């Protein structure tokens, strides 16, 4: 008899556990959930304690049969699924089905939980097994029922009243509202002109440029100088004055390191620093967690990647501090460990932060065993973890105030230098509005020193609308609002794109036409359920169920009574009422390309109105059927064409050898086009097609465009055979060629980023 049958989610995790547990244990993968709610109305009985109807997926049937057969060979079943709400639910489903089959008679069933897949963590978990956590299971059931009731009750209303809409979701619809409302803000934004004034002065030891902060006794705000005429009047007066250094202030600022990664902050930084999508980040993190083959053995390299927590274990803190002292010296090590506190209310899911499992496995020491993407993400996690325990950086800041002798004009310049780099030696966090933060280099100045005015420089500016969301800023906004949870962010973003509600172009979200209309419909008729605070409160209640503070059926009862009432009332809605309210709500978008009087351009008698047809929304003449004028509504995405406010006719990706390179879409797909120079008039511009197997061509960079144009590309020499290593693209995809040998490459974006060292490993 075997010592135990162990159930995990994935084959990779199973393979890693087998190496730690040995031949006395059989490890079986469930491949995620074995069953789900039946995808039809009535799968949740709202009149019978929300009893649920479950159905197996094809894989689930096979896996349950394998588990049922294997359980006969052991008295012990260990449920070792992931340490969160979803993992608990997978184990619960398996246990329920096995009990129904009466396969667990006289069997010991235990739950084992570990947050990192290392030998010591696994052995510790198996030495102290637990029972399934019923509170987590209840929270899962509540979430699943809520999502089902919203989806299966609200989606049919949408289909009938808003043709073209695909579905509604408890969290998905709120995330879409964020994107749509931001776009409406941008469209309504009216830029304001303003001017800033700089003085360029000669001092004894060099040149200093300072900005005008006060004039004629008044402090200048950002929009104080509105026109060029005003700026020039001030310039004329400033040109006549004499100046001196009035005051020099020096101070040291302490900049503390950032907390270790949570799921949200990892996704945000991976988007900004590595250009990874949230989905890709989580897929790679899953591989690093479940195990990588290193020197013939599977190694889990990071702790569990779905977490709200910034807490590090004592073991991790000690490992980080030992590494800092040995690699960087004592001056980079604080006297006492840094302790970070998590803000999450859900203590049962507040595990450790995402960190390396072993500080002996530095990124460079295991680089040869990792793909480029795996290495990049592991390196990011490694640096964030180590830096979180390093000394603060010390920034010396100097503020110089320059005054006119008549004391009517004041200029200011701030310079800063890094006195001690501290954690910045290893890690600098990026933000969504990264700007060049190079501080002004100041010459040595003395107070009361007279300065010679070289020039007054006036610069024109315009106020900017709020930026569109990218994946990083959308995840951060959802987290700030308390909407969604670590395991759901990537899924939410994916669903919005799959449903055609929003398009991610050049890593920025643009709502599609149906996204505007769906959001408007929900805001008009189901406003309570797309309110940010309502959705956040519901998330808190689910967390309280996880902690045993609330009974899950009570939470569903309170939601369902009011929600169902709204659903019933919506049945009476007429299409004309829907159109009227949508036109009123988002008329600025619906009629943005229409004359302000909305006069029909064909008959000149009718009025252009929003119409809802079998295949979606469009604009048409009110005189129909006499006048058959129609116009497609708000083309928005690359797939549909060009739009006035955001054209995709050509997007510049950068310049190379002085030529601009544009990303474009034609009838046969995406391509790059080189800008024609003046002496090339009449000639066709240089174009390079983008392979159709690249799933998201908008992620291609300038370097990728250049590489595509160079194919077949010589990467260098193979040292032993002294043969050229050629990267090329054939009818069956990308491959490497060396002499007569060919090596097929994966059909993805990474083939364009192939370097000689990676090619040699494959060869």
Provide a descriptive summary of the structure in words.
The structure is a single chain. With 763 residues, the protein is of the alpha+beta class. The protein has five domains: 129 residues, Rossmann fold, CATH 3.40.50; 155 residues, Topoisomerase I, domain 2, CATH 1.10.460; 133 residues, Topoisomerase I, domain 3 (Distorted Sandwich); 125 residues, Topoisomerase I, domain 4; 53 residues, no CATH class. 34% of the residues lie in helices and 23% in strands. It is built from 19 helices and 30 strands. It has a six-stranded antiparallel β-barrel with strand order 9-10-16-15-12-17. A four-stranded parallel beta sheet has the order 2-1-7-8, sandwiched between helices. Helix 3 packs across helix 5, helix 8 packs antiparallel against helix 12 and helix 14 packs across helix 17. The radius of gyration is 31 Å and the shape is globular. The chain starts with a strand and ends with a helix. About 3% of the residues have low confidence.
* Helical content band: 25-40%
Runs with pLDDT <50, length 5+? 345-350, 434-438, 635-649
Total discrete domains: 5
CATH domain class name of the largest domain: Mainly Alpha
Q: In which order are the strands of the major sheet placed?
A: 9-10-16-15-12-17
State the separation between the terminal residues, measured CA to CA. 45 Å
| CATH fold annotation of the largest domain | Topoisomerase I, domain 2
User: How many individual helices?
Assistant: 19
Rg measurement, Å? 31 Å
What is the number of strand segments? 30
Major β-sheet annotation: 6 strands, antiparallel, barrel
- Overall geometric form: globular
What is the CATH architecture descriptor of the largest domain?
Answer: Orthogonal Bundle
Strand-pairing-aware structural class: alpha+beta
Mean pLDDT: 87
**CATH homologous group name of the largest domain:** Topoisomerase I, domain 2
């Amino acid at each position: 008899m075997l010592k135990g049958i162990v159930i995990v989610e994935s084959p990779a995790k199973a393979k890693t556990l087998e190496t730690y547990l040995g031949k006395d244990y059989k490890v079986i993968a469930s491949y995620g959930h074995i069953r789900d709610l039946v995808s039809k109305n009535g799968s949740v009985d709202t009149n019978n304690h929300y009893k649920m109807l479950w159905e197996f997926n094809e894989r689930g049937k096979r896996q349950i049969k394998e588990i049922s057969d294997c359980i006969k060979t052991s008295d012990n079943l260990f449920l070792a699924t992931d340490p969160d709400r979803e993992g608990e639910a997978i184990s619960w489903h398996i246990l329920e089905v096995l009990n129904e089959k009466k396969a667990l008679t006289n069997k010991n069933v235990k739950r084992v939980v570990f947050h990192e897949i290392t030998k010591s963590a696994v052995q510790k978990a198996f030495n102290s097994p637990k029972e399934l956590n019923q509170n987590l299971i209840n929270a899962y059931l509540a979430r699943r029922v809520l999502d089902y009731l919203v989806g299966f009750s609200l989606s049919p209303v949408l289909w009938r009243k808003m043709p073209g809409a695909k579905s509604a979701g408890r969290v998905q619809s709120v995330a879409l509202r964020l994107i749509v409302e931001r776009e409406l803000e941008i469209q309504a934004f009216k830029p304001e002109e303003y001017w800033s004034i700089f003085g360029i002065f000669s001092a004894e030891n060099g040149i200093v440029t300072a900005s005008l902060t006060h004039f004629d006794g008044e402090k200048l705000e950002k929009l104080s100088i509105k026109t060029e005429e005003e700026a020039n009047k001030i310039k004329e007066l400033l040109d006549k004055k004499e100046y001196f250094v009035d005051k020099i202030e020096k101070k040291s600022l302490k900049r503390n390191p950032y907390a270790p990664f949570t799921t949200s902050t990892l996704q945000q930084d991976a988007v900004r620093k590595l250009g990874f999508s949230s989905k890709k980040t989580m897929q790679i993190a899953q591989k690093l967690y479940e195990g990588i083959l290193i020197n013939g053995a599977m190694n889990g390299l990071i702790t569990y990647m779905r977490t709200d927590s910034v807490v590090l274990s004592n073991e991790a803190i000690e490992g980080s501090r030992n590494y800092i002292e040995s690699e960087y010296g004592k001056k980079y090590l604080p006297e006492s460990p840094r302790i970070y506190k998590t803000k999450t209310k859900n203590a049962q899911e507040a595990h450790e932060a995402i960190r390396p499992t072993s500080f002996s496995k530095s990124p460079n020491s295991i680089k040869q065993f990792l793909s480029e993407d795996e290495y990049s993400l592991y390196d990011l996690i490694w640096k964030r973890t180590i830096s979180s325990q390093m000394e603060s950086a010390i920034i010396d800041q100097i503020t110089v105030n320059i005054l006119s002798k008549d004391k009517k004009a004041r200029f200011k310049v701030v310079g800063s230098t890094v006195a001690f780099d501290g954690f910045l030696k290893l890690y600098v966090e990026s933000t969504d509005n990264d700007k060049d933060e190079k501080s002004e280099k100041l010459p040595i100045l003395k107070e009361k020193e007279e300065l010679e005015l070289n020039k007054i420089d006036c610069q024109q500016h315009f106020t900017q609308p709020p930026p569109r969301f990218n994946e990083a800023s959308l995840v951060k906004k959802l987290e700030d609002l308390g909407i969604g949870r670590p395991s759901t962010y990537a899924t939410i973003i994916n669903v919005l794109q799959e449903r055609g509600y929003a398009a991610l172009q050049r890593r920025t979200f643009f709502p599609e036409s149906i996204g505007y209309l769906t959001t408007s419909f929900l805001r008009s008729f189901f406003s309570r359920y797309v309110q940010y605070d309502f959705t956040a409160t519901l998330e808190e209640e689910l967390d309280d169920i996880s902690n045993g503070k609330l009974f899950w059926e009570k939470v569903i009862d309170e939601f369902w009574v009011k929600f169902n009432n709204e659903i019933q009332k919506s049945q009476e809605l007429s299409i004309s009422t829907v159109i009227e309210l949508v036109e009123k709500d988002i008329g600025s978008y619906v009629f943005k390309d229409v004359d302000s009087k909305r006069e029909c351009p064909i008959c000149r008698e009718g009025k252009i109105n929003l119409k809802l047809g079998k295949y979606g929304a469009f604009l048409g003449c009110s005189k129909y059927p006499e006048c058959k004028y129609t116009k497609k509504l708000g083309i928005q995405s690359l797939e549909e064409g060009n739009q006035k406010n955001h054209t995709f006719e050509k997007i510049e990706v950068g310049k190379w050898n002085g030529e601009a390179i544009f990303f474009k879409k034609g009838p046969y797909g995406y391509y790059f086009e080189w800008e024609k120079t003046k002496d090339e008039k009449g000639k066709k511009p240089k174009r390079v097609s983008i392979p159709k197997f690249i799933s998201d061509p908008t992620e291609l960079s300038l370097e990728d465009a250049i590489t595509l144009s160079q194919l077949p590309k010589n990467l260098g020499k193979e040292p032993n055979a002294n043969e050229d290593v050629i990267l090329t693209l054939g009818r069956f995809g990308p491959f490497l060629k060396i002499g007569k040998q060919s090596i097929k490459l994966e059909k993805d974006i990474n083939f364009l980023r192939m370097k000689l060292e990676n090619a040699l490993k494959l060869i």
